Amino acid sequence: MNFQSVKLVRSLLIFIALCSVGVPSFRLYQEISRLSLNTRWDQRLDPNDSETQILKQFVTRLQDKIHSEYRGNLRNADNSIPALSKCDENTLSAWKIKKTESDLTVNYSCLRLVDFYTEGKSVEEIKQKRDKQKSNLVFRRFDNLRKNRFLPALGPVKVAEDSIIAHTRSILSYFGEDDILNDIPALRVDSVYMFHENSQVMAIYPNLINQDYDNKNINYQRRPWYESVGSNVEGIDDQNLEGYATVYFRSLGRNRSGLTGIYIDISDDNQPNLIRTLWYRFKGADGQYYIFALDLFMDKSGAFSGGNSWVSLFWLSTPF
């Protein structure tokens, strides 16, 4: 081997050595930052915390875009919107929540109407109450949004395949926020829903097949997302509700929005999943109040793409 060849090999080895240090170090920094965000998500968020500003900015942008959706669609009094879509039982898909090892079955072809005030009611009374809201204009506008905006972004899904990430991206991309997954890859969108305060009926997307809401004793006034909304509606200055501290609270015109503290969703019976709800309260064209909301959570075991850094190994081996 001549001198030039030796020099070339030596330069190549030096380059490889530098890359082996530099690239993992950069990835290590990324993973530590993501780990910090995931950890803070399950704690009391401080709006002034410099390490969670990316979350604050994301929520603020999302609030603005939901407000634009209200101004352009949800408050529209035009009654020519089609009736609610019927469920196609051949369009089922799966959600695999890695953190809780849960498998859910969802149907993207329709909304699910749920009575969120079932205390003291029979199943038949609940059904009649739901049926009366099938013609609700805001629900129909929400269904139109599902059909013409969320579904095209979702694309085709199969029964056996996990579609929770595709669902998350479809919702966030409609609001122009899917790039957030580059910074917070563990972020997931759970249910998206519209709650009608006057009737106490909620329209949920997607339809969670596994859940039997009719046999639950539900009082919407005791749900964390409504406690968060209610505190602000009544003008209470102290928003630190016990266990459900509201952050990123904003007034948007005559409407209001905020992010709840962490809590366990009503549909989680055996494998609790800690979520937060981003809510937006507005008055519809009928003069009645509605709450548009997105449930958000971190699927921690799916947070990182892999690799051999000690953070990845620690993360994957730690039970949550």
Furnish the topology, listing elements before pairings:
Elements (H helix, E strand, L loop, with lengths): L2 H39 L11 H22 L17 E6 L4 E6 L4 E4 L7 H10 L4 H18 L9 H11 L5 H4 L3 E10 L4 E5 L1 E2 L15 H10 L13 E6 L2 E5 L3 E2 L9 E10 L5 E10 L11 H8 L3
Antiparallel strand pairs: 1-2, 2-6, 3-5, 4-5, 4-11, 7-8, 8-10, 9-10, 10-11
Keywords:
disordered C terminus; 3-stranded antiparallel sheet; alpha+beta; single chain; 8-stranded antiparallel sheet; 320 residues
In summary, what is this structure?
With 320 residues, this protein is an alpha+beta fold. 38% of the residues lie in helices and 21% in strands.
Description:
With 320 residues, the chain is an alpha+beta fold. It has one domain. Helix content is 38%, strand content 21%. The protein has eight helices and eleven strands. It has helices spanning 3-41, 53-74, 123-132, 137-154, 164-174, 180-183, 224-233, 310-317, and strands spanning 92-97, 102-107, 112-115, 187-196, 201-205, 207-208, 247-252, 255-259, 263-264, 274-283, 289-298. The strands form two sheets. Strands 3, 4, 5, 7, 8, 9, 10 and 11 form an eight-stranded antiparallel sheet that branches. The chain has a three-stranded antiparallel sheet with strand order 1-2-6, with no helix packed on it. A hairpin with a 4-residue loop joins strand 1 (92-97) and strand 2. The longest helix is centred in the N-terminal third of the chain and has 39 residues, at 3-41. The protein is globular, with a radius of gyration of 23 Å.
